[in-house]
Write a structure and sequence with these properties.
The structure is a single chain. By secondary structure, the chain is mainly α. The chain has 3 domains: about 25-165; about 170-245; about 350-440, no CATH class. The chain is about 75% helix and about 0% strand. The chain has helices spanning about 1-25, 30-45, 45-50, 50-70, 75-115, 120, 125-140, 145-165, 170-190, 190-195, 195-215, 220-260, 265, 270-285, 290-310, 335-345, 365-375, 380-385, 420-430, 430-440, and strands spanning about 350-355, 400-405. It has a two-stranded antiparallel ribbon with strand order 1-2. Mean pLDDT is about 80; it is low at about 1-25, about 315-330 and about 410-440.
C-alpha cells in the first residue's frame, strides 16, 4: 500500500512538471500585448483610417490562438508578435488623421457658435471652447496627436453647448428688430424721408439684413446689423423730430402774423395773446430739446391763430344821421357791443371753449357736449374737431382751448327749469368771454 501511495505522488508530480513545461511554452505575454495593441488601434478608429493594417493585426491574432490550440507554440508566439506590430502600424496611421479631422470639426463648431453670437449670449462655454481649440492646435503642431484628439473633442463639446445656449436666446434678436422697426415708423411719421433720407434708408436696409440673419440663425450677423439699424434709426428719428418742431414753430409764427393782420384780431385780443404765449413756450421747449412738447405747443398756437382768422368780421349797426370817418358813426353802447360779439360768434364755424380746472366736477368731452348741445353723445363731434390737440378722448387738460363745432340747426339748450343746468346755459352762451377772463387771470 505504501508503494501504491508513492506511485500516486510520483504521477501527480510528473503531471505538474508536464503542465508547467507546456505553460512555459505558451506565448502569454505576446498574446496579451497583441490584444492590447489592437484595442488601442480601435480607440483611434483604425478600422476606418487604417483598415488594412487593422484587419491584418486581427487575423494574425486569430492565427496565434489557433496555433496554441494545435500546440504550435512557436508559431503562436510569432503570429502574436506580428499582430502587435500590425496593430501599432494601424494606430500610427490612424491617430494623426483622426486628430486632424476632429480638430477640423471642433473648428467648425466654434465658428458655428460664433455665428449665433455665442461670444455674448453663451460667454462661458464659448470661452472654454476657444481655450480647448487653441490647446488642440498647439498639440497638433507638436505632433502630439492623441492630446490633439482629446482637446479637440472637448472644444467641440463646449462649442456645441454654447451654440445651443445662444440659440435659446434667439427671441432677443427678434425683439430688437421689432423695437428698431417701431423707431423707423416713428421717424417716418415725422417726415424722415425728407429730413434724414440716408439715415432712414440705411436703418431699413440693416433691419432687413437682421431679419434675414435671424431666419438663417446667423445671430451674430443679425445682432451686428440691428445695432447699425438702431443707430441710424435713432439719428433719423431725432433729426426729423427736430426739423418738424422747427417747421411747426415757423407755421405758428406765420399763422399768428396772418391772424394779427386781419380785422378779426381786434375782436380777439386775448386769443392772439394766448397764441403768442404758446409760441413762446414752443420755442423754449425747442431750445431744451423737448421737441415733441414743442410740436404740441406750436400746434395749439396754430389752432388758436387760425380760429381768429376764420372768424367773420361783424358789421356794426350804424345810427342814421351821426358822422363816421366815412360820414357815419359806429354804435358804441354796451348792449350793441354785446349784440356785435354775439353776431361774430354765431357767424363763425366754431365756438372756442377753454377747458376749466374743477377738481370736484372736472371738464370732459361728455359734459362739454351737454353744455353746448344738451346731448352728451355728441362728444364725438368735439373730439373730431380737435384731433390735432386731443389724442385721447378720455383725457383733456385744463387750459386747452377747444373748437366747438356749430350744428346746421340751432343748438338745443337745456331746460330752464333745471336750475343746475342754467349755469351751463350761461357758460355755453359766452365761452369766449370765459376764455378771455381765464387768459387774463
Amino acid at each position: 500500500m505504501r508503494s501504491k501511495y508513492h506511485f500516486s505522488i510520483i504521477a501527480l508530480l510528473s503531471a505538474l512538471v508536464l503542465m508547467t513545461a507546456c505553460f512555459e511554452k505558451l506565448p502569454v505575454k505576446e498574446l496579451s500585448l497583441a490584444k492590447n495593441a489592437i484595442s488601442e488601434a480601435e480607440a483611434v478608429k483604425a478600422p476606418y483610417y487604417a483598415k488594412d493594417e487593422y484587419n491584418q493585426a486581427k487575423d494574425l491574432l486569430v492565427a496565434a490562438h489557433d496555433n496554441v490550440k494545435n500546440e504550435e507554440y512557436d508559431k503562436a508566439e510569432q503570429n502574436a508578435i506580428e499582430a502587435q506590430k500590425k496593430a501599432r502600424e494601424a494606430y500610427d496611421k490612424a491617430i494623426p488623421l483622426l486628430a486632424k479631422d476632429t480638430l477640423d470639426i471642433a473648428t467648425k463648431s466654434v465658428e458655428a457658435a460664433d455665428n449665433v453670437y455665442a461670444g455674448v449670449l453663451a460667454k462661458d462655454d464659448f470661452a472654454k471652447a476657444n481655450e480647448m481649440l487653441q490647446e488642440a492646435n498647439k498639440n497638433y503642431e507638436n505632433k502630439n496627436y492623441l492630446a490633439t484628439y482629446k482637446a479637440a473633442l472637448d472644444a467641440d463639446m463646449y462649442a456645441k453647448n454654447a451654440r445651443n445656449v445662444a440659440l435659446s436666446q434667439k427671441a432677443t434678436l427678434a425683439d430688437s428688430i421689432k423695437e428698431v422697426n417701431i423707431i423707423i415708423a416713428q421717424a417716418e411719421s415725422y417726415n424722415a424721408n425728407q429730413y434724414a433720407p440716408e439715415k432712414l434708408k440705411l436703418a431699413k436696409e440693416q433691419s432687413q439684413v437682421a431679419r434675414s440673419a435671424y431666419d438663417a440663425e446667423e445671430l451674430k450677423k443679425g445682432f451686428s446689423a440691428i445695432e447699425v439699424a438702431r443707430l441710424n434709426a435713432d439719428e433719423a428719428y431725432f433729426a426729423s423730430l427736430k426739423a418738424t418742431a422747427a417747421k411747426k414753430i415757423d407755421e405758428a409764427q406765420g399763422a399768428i402774423v396772418a391772424a394779427k393782420a386781419t380785422e378779426q384780431a381786434k375782436q380777439s385780443p386775448n386769443d392772439i395773446k394766448a397764441a403768442e404765449e404758446l409760441l413762446a413756450n414752443a420755442k423754449t421747449l425747442f431750445n431744451d430739446a423737448k421737441y415733441k412738447e414743442s410740436i404740441v405747443a406750436s400746434g395749439e398756437a396754430i389752432t388758436i391763430a387760425n380760429s381768429v382768422s376764420a372768424k367773420k368780421v361783424a358789421v356794426a349797426p350804424v345810427i342814421e344821421g351821426e358822422a363816421t370817418p366815412e360820414g357815419k358813426k359806429e354804435v358804441q353802447s354796451e348792449p350793441q357791443k354785446e349784440a356785435l360779439q354775439k353776431t361774430v360768434e354765431e357767424e363763425t364755424e366754431y365756438t372756442m371753449y377753454k377747458v376749466k380746472y374743477n377738481p370736484e366736477r372736472r371738464d370732459c368731452l361728455w359734459r362739454i357736449a351737454v353744455k353746448f348741445y344738451n346731448d352728451g353723445f355728441k362728444w364725438k363731434q368735439i373730439f373730431e374737431a380737435n384731433k390735432d390737440l386731443v389724442k385721447n378722448p378720455n383725457l383733456i387738460k385744463p387750459g386747452w382751448v377747444l373748437k366747438i363745432p356749430k350744428t346746421a340747426t340751432k343748438l338745443a339748450r337745456p331746460k330752464k327749469e333745471d336750475v343746475n343746468e342754467q349755469t351751463a346755459i350761461k357758460e355755453t352762451e359766452a365761452p369766449t368771454t370765459e376764455l378771455k377772463m381765464k387768459t387774463q387771470e
